[in-house]
Amino acid sequence: MASPRMSSRASAYSALLPAFIVLAVVYIGSTVWTMWMSLTGSRMLPNNNFVGLRNYEILFSNDRWITSVHNLAFFGVLFVAISLALGFLLAVAIDQKVRSEDSWRSVYLYPYSMSFVVTGLVWQWLLNPTLGIQKLVRDMGFETFTFDWIAHAETVLYCLVIAGVWHAAGLVMAIMLAGLRGVDEDIWKAARVDGLPTWRVYASVVTPMLGASFATAGVLLSTSVVRLYDLSVAMTRGGPGIASEVPAKFVMDHLFERANISLATAAATSMLITVIAVVAPYMYWRTRVAARGRA
Amino acid sequence: MSLQSEVDIRDVSVRFGNVQVLEKLNLKIAPSEFIVLLGPSGCGKSTLLNAIAGLLDVSDGQMWIGGRNVTWEEPKDRGIAMVFQSYALYPRMSVKKNMSFGLEVAGTPRAEIEARVAEAAQMLKLTPLLERKPAALSGGQRQRVAIGRALVRKVGVYLFDEPLSNLDAQLRAELRVEIKRLHARLGATMIYVTHDQIEALTLADRIAVMQGGVIQQLAAPKDIYRRPVNRFVASFVGSPAMNFIAGRVEAGLFFHAGDYRIPLAGYAFAGAPAAGAATLGIRPEHVLAGHEAGPDAIAAKVEMVEPMGADTLIWSRLPDGASLSIRHAADAAVREGDTLPVSFPADALSVFDDTPAGARL
Ligand SMILES: Nc1ncnc2c1ncn2[C@@H]1O[C@H](COP(=O)(O)OP(=O)(O)OP(=O)(O)O)[C@@H](O)[C@H]1O
Ligand SMILES: [Mg+2]
């Protein structure tokens, strides 16, 4: 009895072993190496001259880095909030038993199937004052119409947000719609008997039930915030000036164009630490909640 | 606090696309009556209840509640409250909030809400649970909260859609008694859907037995049980089910099956008794067996004996091969293979004609 189970366990482990090795070497190994590099004086090629935290001092007195971090925070808050709100509203709209629901769902989900690069290029063109929306409206006879946010440092980030939301709202909609469909039909009936207006049911009864859907969507959106790179490259190349620079682009540029490995890895490590600082308390809270739910 | 409304359902039809679920259904329910809608799955019980509640539109006919034509009114304006099988509590609200929320939205004064919630909670023994969320309650407690949410509406008609079928047998029995007590105390009209005949027989003033969207019989539980109007009602109500024996009604008032005869003298025929093919029905507990059977007994062959505690169920076969179940005293010394004399008292019989519907003769 015992030996077949042992052997099946052993074979399970041996089947998983390559994955473990990949995980250990590629992820953990690379992370540790990156952290180490940020403490050295590596320039174009890696070396092991320990310099302490000097790269971090340079990094946090670097204007471009500070701007990148601010930009990311600004973008992240707007992008996540608007995507969640818009996705939720779209889901509610589709939840009203509209006709040809399937086609609506596909239409809204379509943008998500495109890469950020394509999305960025499309919106770069649409928002370009001499080619896109502004030109179109002016050609229709509204000569004074201006829509040139992408050309101004103060407004360019909104353009990134628009493109990002366009890309992600459909996904949020799909997640939210699944959540809405999971709400017991009888709850709607009970609410009708109670005389609750539809908006009130969404606001006070259904939305609180969608906590898990909001969390899922929020986590997915946050990961694309941290990774934000291609959108900025494709739409604005970080411009005008450094007005739409983002941390990932800072890392890539210093790694490959500016041959400053140690500064790039210091930036990457800072991003990692920030993410951990945000995620760890959240994970802790989740396990606490789960444990309380089980008790 | 005794609001009572009569409910009058007039020629109501309900269609889903081209599926006709209810057709020209009529049902008049007196104020303060407890009506149970009983029937097999898919017969349209929930559909009828939802139509009364206004949760789905009728395609034809009228709905009158408390003397008002409410056919096109919203559920909240009909003077009804409803309890659902799945409880349908608002999961993120406390027990108290579940009960008070509808009233708050309707703009009922605070003090009034407090009073109603306190009263309902006290009636349903929910007072210690008021601050809990539904997730922290047992099934029985949840259903009590759902009933409480209906009670605070203080309406004339309460609708229940299989409220107990998600509960285990013991809780079901407990809550059944509680609902009966509630009805006695409130005196409100109650319409209760179930496919559990024990619930139907114990709770109802009148039972409406439904099949295929049609009310087959509407009568007091005793009459449904004793005098079913057709074979469907006879076979649906009662457990173990009524025995059926195919044969003929003959002049001289005998029921002739195989090579034995059952006297029908004393049977209350609905019309003038006519000779012809028919089916005879008798409930297992009405069969007289052993020394009770009398001189004209028929010899039944015992095939299986099931002791059930309070009594014993005997599965036997009549000479013509028809099977017959007999409920007998628990101490009966009957064994497999025995021959048991049985007879059928005429006043406990049901005789059905041989049309597909099998109407009572
Ligand atoms: N929305 C709908 N669209 C089409 N047909 C429906 C719909 N709702 C119910 N029906 C049909 O109407 C009939 C009656 O349904 P109903 O829910 O009233 O049955 P029920 O008697 O309550 O059964 P149960 O005991 O299983 O709850 C069923 O045949 C069902 O398939
Ligand atoms: Mg039903």
Question: Can you tag this structure with a few keywords?
Answer:
heterodimer; A: 295 residues; mainly alpha; MetI-like fold; globular; B: 361 residues; alpha+beta; Rossmann fold; OB fold (Dihydrolipoamide Acetyltransferase, E2P); 2 domains; six-stranded mixed beta sheet; five-stranded antiparallel beta sheet; 8 helices; 20 strands; elongated; binds adenosine-5'-triphosphate; binds magnesium ion
Description:
The complex is a heterodimer of chains A (295) and B (361). Chain A has helices spanning 2-37, 54-60, 63-95, 101-109, 116-127, 133-139, 156-181, 185-194, 198-209, 211-226, 230-235, 247-257, 261-294. With 295 residues, chain A is mostly helical. Chain A has a single domain (62-294), classed as MetI-like fold, CATH 1.10.3720.10. Chain A is globular and about 75 Å long. The two termini of chain A are 34 Å apart. In chain A, 30% of the residues are buried. The mean pLDDT of chain A is 86. With 361 residues, chain B is α+β, with helices and mostly antiparallel strands. Chain B folds into 2 domains: 7-232, P-loop containing nucleotide triphosphate hydrolases (Rossmann fold, 3-Layer(aba) Sandwich); 241-353, OB fold (Dihydrolipoamide Acetyltransferase, E2P) (Beta Barrel). Chain B is built from 8 helices and 20 strands. Chain B has helices at residues 45-53, 95-106, 110-123, 139-151, 169-186, 197-203, 221-226, 231-236, and strands at residues 7-16, 19-29, 34-38, 60-65, 68-69, 80-83, 157-161, 189-194, 206-211, 214-219, 243-250, 254-257, 260-263, 276-282, 288-289, 298-307, 311-317, 323-329, 339-343, 350-353. Chain B has a 6-stranded mixed sheet with strand order 6-7-8-3-9-10, sandwiched between helices. In chain B, a hairpin with a 2-residue loop joins strand 9 (206-211) and strand 10 (214-219). The relative contact order of chain B is 0.12. The model of chain B has no long low-confidence stretch (mean pLDDT 90). Bound molecules: adenosine-5'-triphosphate and magnesium ion.
